[in-house]
Write a structure and sequence with these properties.
The protein has ten helices and nine strands. By secondary structure, it is an alpha+beta fold.
Length: 307
Amino acid sequence: MELPWSADKAVQQLGRSHRANQSSAPLYQLVTTNLGGERRFAAAVAKRLLTLGALTKGDRRAATGVEFGEFNFNTPYGRTALRQMYGSILKRELYGGTSLDAVRKAAGVTEDLQLGRLFSILQEGLELMGVLERGVVKEGELGDVSRFLNRILGLKVQQQNLMFAYFSECLSTVIAIAKKEGRFNEGVTDIVAVSIKMVGNAREVFTEYKLSHVPTVHTHVVVDRGMGWEEVRALARQARGKCSGFYRSRREQYHRQLYLLALQKENSSHLFNIIRPNTGRSFYEETKTDLLNKYIPITPEKAGVCV
């Protein structure tokens, strides 16, 4: 379906093809080009369509085809991603979890674009968009996703594609971190862990509001997402880079020290993959500066004593 000229028009089009008690639900596919600025129109339509609830996702799992939520960037995750993107462009450092190759691929860039050149293009784009003031992002621009999508329409094609591609990579990383930490709201989900144990028997709840023959049950499970000491020690032995190793937090949190294994990324001198005992491998990549500011290196023997 080609994008209509307004969100209200899209609602009318979809509503006329989706009827109650029909034998099969329709499949909706929004058609867009790979132009970064066009996502502004898709985002406006998607935000309005998400208010229709059952039309887009019904019981939050029943939908088929493409979920319109993928076009809606004006969310708490989108605003966080925008702030992180602005900060990383000014620092000229990739946001942890993103990669230059992914940005180039998403933007359709075939030339050998280096990191320094990428940030020069993005900084120039921010200046043309009127986002910067004396080298700092204006306060009103920090979390305004709608304004950001409007402004990139005024950039050249390659520039707006690179800008939107980097924003998309930051958004994917922010969502991945939220999912890893259990903060992402996506309705019915599958529990992923090293081990899952059910505690006791499932019990039926909401019995006083029972309106059908399908019961609602509550199950208590214990989930282990961590990583064992032997596995972590094996990874530490294979680690490369002089700063790879075990670290302890400089400050106590919840009246105790925190420990982790930092593994320097291949072909990078300032990014590290983080592994924690209780949550395993993190989606978030720590920069060398942040790592050394918050943690101090320790020997494997000291780390093993605290396991």
